[in-house]
Design goal:
By secondary structure, the protein is of the alpha+beta class. The chain is built from 3 helices and 16 strands. Strands 1-2-3-4 form a 4-stranded antiparallel β-sheet, with no helix packed on it. A hairpin with a 2-residue loop joins strand 13 and strand 14. It starts with 30 loop residues before the first strand and ends with a helix. The relative contact order is 0.11.
Length: 228
C-alpha cells in the first residue's frame, strides 16, 4: 500500500491552514481486483453488519454470485480458493494468488496522542495470518506524524517492490523490507533518531569544529608572526 488508500479515508473539512483538520472514515464498499497475470481475482465484500450494506449491494460493481471475500480463479468460477473473514479498504496482492498484505486501518489518536499499539501491516497466505506488526514496532519518532483531529499518518509509503518483497517507509525516516511469504523483516534501516536529534547534533558538532579550527588558525598565525 502506498498513500493511495489513505486519501480515500478523508472526505471533508480539510483546512490546509490549520495543523489539525476535521476527518471521518468513508463507509465500506465492495470491490474486486484482477491480478496482472489474469489468472486470479480478489473480491472484498462489505460486511453484512455494515450500516450501508443494502446501499452498497445495490451500487456494487462486484457480481452478486461472489458471496464471500477472498481469492477466486478468474474463469467465471464463484467457488473461492481461499477466503478472509475481515474487511479492509484496500489490500496489496502478490501475483501468486496466495499471499496478501493488509495495511492497518487509519491510525487514531488516543487522548490527543498517537496510539502506537494499532495494526501497521499484516501478512497472509491462503487467507491465514502469518504476521502482524504494530505501528510502535516500526517507528521511532511519533513527533514526525501528520495528525488530524482524531487520526494520524505514520507511513510515507508501503508497496510491493518485488515479487515477494514489500517495502515500508515511515515518516520518521525508517525503511523496512519484508518477505511477503513469511512476513519477516529481511532488511531494516532506522533513521528515526536522526530525524529527531541528528540534525541538531550535526549542527552543534559542526559549530564546535569550526570554532576549534578558527582558534587553531589564529594560533598558527601568531606562531608564524613570532617566527618572523
Amino acid at each position: 500500500m502506498t498513500n493511495r488508500y489513505l486519501p480515500l479515508l478523508v472526505f471533508f473539512g480539510i483546512f490546509v491552514t490549520s495543523p489539525l483538520f476535521a476527518d471521518s472514515l468513508l463507509p465500506p464498499r465492495s470491490y474486486k481486483e484482477v491480478l496482472p497475470s489474469g489468472k486470479f481475482i480478489f473480491v472484498m465484500l462489505v460486511p453484512k453488519d455494515a450500516w450501508n450494506y443494502e446501499q452498497s449491494i445495490r451500487n456494487s460493481e462486484v457480481h452478486p454470485d461472489y458471496t464471500r471475500s477472498g481469492m477466486y480463479r478468474n474463469d467465471g468460477s464463484t467457488e473461492p480458493i481461499w477466503t478472509v473473514e475481515w474487511y479492509s479498504h484496500g489490500v496489496d496482492l502478490a501475483q501468486d494468488g496466495v499471499h496478501l498484505i493488509r495495511p492497518g486501518p487509519w491510525a487514531w489518536l488516543r487522548e490527543n496522542t498517537p496510539a502506537l499499539d494499532v495494526e501497521a501491516v499484516s501478512f497472509f497466505a491462503n487467507g491465514q495470518l502469518l504476521r502482524t506488526y504494530q505501528v510502535g514496532e516500526l517507528v521511532n519518532n511519533p513527533g514526525s506524524f501528520q495528525q488530524t483531529v482524531s487520526h494520524y499518518w505514520w507511513q510515507r509509503e508501503g508497496r510491493l517492490t518485488g515479487e515477494y518483497e514489500y517495502t515500508i517507509m515511515t515518516l520518521d525516516g525508517n525503511r523496512f523490507v519484508f518477505d511477503v511469504r513469511t512476513g519477516e523483516i529481511v532488511f531494516e534501516s532506522r533513521m528515526g533518531w536522526l530525524s529527531r536529534w541528528g540534525w541538531q547534533l550535526i549542527f552543534y558538532a559542526s559549530s564546535v569544529c569550526i570554532f576549534i579550527w578558527l582558534i587553531w588558525s589564529r594560533s598558527i598565525s601568531k606562531i608564524e608572526c613570532a617566527d618572523d
